[in-house]
Fold:
Amino acid sequence: MINPRISKIIKGIGIFEKRLSLKAKIGVLLGVVIFCAFRLAWTYYVCNRNGEINVYYVTDSVLESVDPNMIMGDDNAVFTVVNKDPNNFEIDWKTSRIHIGKPVRLNLVGTAIPVVMGSCWNGKKGSVRPEYPVKIDTGYAGNLMVGDAIVKDAGLDYYPQGFNDGGIVGICHLCQLKLGDVTFVHPGCNVRNGHFEKRTDKKSSQVLYDILLGIKLLKKFDYVLIDTPSKYMEFSVKSFDPNDETLWDEFPMVVETRKNNDILFVTIPVNGKEHRMQFDTGAGSAIHIASSFWKEFSKSLDHKGPKSCRVRRSNGFAKSEYYIVKKLKFAGEVFRDVRVMIDVSKEEPLKNSNIMLGMKFFKKRVIVMDFENGLLKVKKTE
Structure:
C-alpha cells in the first residue's frame, strides 16, 4: 500500500506535469525517490534503534576447528549419555551445585535486559578465567547456553550432539561460572550453532560473547531481585524480606516443566483483565502477542500499525511486526504509546502462552521473583 503522503506527492506531479520543464520534472521525481528512501531507512532505524542495527548472527563452523583433544566422550567426568536418539536425547549429569552464602548483590551492565559480568573456568590447571556478559534470561528454558565462539575462546571441552534443535548443537563442560560470590560448579551448559557479531566498519566486525543463565538455574534460588533504576540485582538462598509489605504488589508466579523445559508464568491484569503469560527477562520489549490472539487482545485498544521489524532470538533474528497502542493499563499503571510485538514467525511461534511479557514495563521498577513463595513482587511507584 502506498503511503498517503507519497500518494499526494505523486498526484501533485500529475497536476503540474504539463506546466513543469523536463529539468523540473526530474528534480521532483528525484525528491520523491529520496523521500521514499528516507522513510524506509527511518522505519528500519526505528525498528532497530536498540543498538543492534549492525548486529548479525554468524554460523561459521567455529566448532569444526575445536582441538580434537577437547571433544568429550559419551561417558566423562561430568555426564553420561543415556540415549543418543536425536528425538529423545538424554544425559545423566553426574554432579552440579551452587555455592552461595549470604545474598549476593551484583551490578547490572545491561540496559533493556538484566546483564551482569561473570568469569568462567574450563577446569584446566593454569588456564585463565575470561569474563563474559551473562544475561539473566528466564525465557531460556535450560541451565546455561553459550555461543560457539565462547567454547573456543575459553577452551571448554565440547560434546557434539549430532543434531540441531532450536540452534543447540552440543554440550560443553563449563567447570565453574562465577558471578561475584555465586559459583556454579559443573552446571549443565548447551552450545548454540553460532554467535552474534557487530559490524564495526565495512571490513571488520567484533564478536559479541554472551552467556544465557536460564530458568532451570534461577529457580534454585529463593529469590532473584532486579533493580533496574539502581542498576543492580541480587541472588539469595534465604527468604526475601520486603520490610514493608504495603510497598509491594504481588502477582502469582509458577515454573512449569513441559517436555523437560522449564517455563516461568505470571498472572497480571492488563486493561482490567487478568492474563497468564510467560515472563521473559531476556526480552527488552513490553509484551509479545501471538498473531492468533491479537484480534481478541486488541478489541478495545486504540492502536496504529502494523509495521515490520526484526526481533532477536537466542540463535539469530526473526521477522516480526509491531503495533503502537495509545494507552495500555498494566498492573494498575497506565502506559502510553506501547509497542506491542506480534509473533509472525512460522519458525518460532509463541509455543507456551498467547502473551510473552518482557522487561519494558519494569524499566523504572524493582521486581523480585520470589521462587520460594511463587510470587512476582513489584515495588510500587512513589
User: Anything to note?
Assistant: The CA atoms of residues 6 and 32 lie 7 Å apart. The longest helix spans residues 22-47.
